[in-house]
Structures are given as C-alpha cells and as structure tokens.
Amino acid sequence: MTAVEVADHVSAGLRAVIPSLPIRTIPIADGGECTLQAALSAGFLRVDVTAAGPTGEPVRAAVAVKDRTAVAEGLATPCRRSPRH
User: Fold this and answer.
1) Contact present, 25 and 7 (Cβ < 8 Å)
2) CA 70/CA 54 separation, integer angstroms
3) What backbone torsions phi and psi does residue 59 show, to the nearest 5 degrees?
4) What's the Rg (C-alpha) of the chain?
5) Cβ count within 10 A of residue 59
6) Choosing a second label site near 63 at 20 to 30 A (CA), which of 10, 36, 37, 72?
7) 52 has which bridge partners?
8) DSSP state for residue 17 in the 8-state scheme
9) Are 59 and 50 within 8 A, CB to CB?
10) In whole angstroms, what is the distance from residue 72 CA to residue 75 CA?
11) Calpha distance 63→70 (Å, rounded)
12) How much is the pTM?
C-alpha cells in the first residue's frame, strides 16, 4: 500500500468508531517506493528530469518540488559489475 492508501484506511477506521472525529491525514514515506507519491499528495509538483545514473549513462527520473525542497526516489539503479570482479 502507498502512504496515501494507509492514511485513507486509518482515517476510515477512526471515522467508523467516531464519525465526527476531525482528521487531517499527512502521508509519510520512508524514502523508498511511493515517496514521490507521498510528496505529490502533500502539494509538491512533479518534475521529470534526466539524471546521470550510477554508470554515468542518462536515466529518466522524476522529482517532487515545492519551494526550495526536492524529493526523489529510485534515482539509482543497480551498478553493473565488471566481469573481473
């Protein structure tokens, strides 16, 4: 589940017990998968970029930007190993 889905499910469970409970969800990710989605749900803007991958080759990626803060996930890919190693 994404951080947004978890927040929605927790909210629904709480409202099932206390319907009038004021709830503000703030999805939080741990830096892995779905981190970008959590930032976008918090009002960040998606920006598609080309970045240098771990082997120096260009890779397509996306970052979430808001004011002077940028959030990225999955910019690194597994490095290729030399056949000598």
Assistant:
1) yes
2) 20
3) -130, 145
4) 18
5) 15
6) 10
7) 58
8) H
9) yes
10) 7
11) 6
12) 0.58
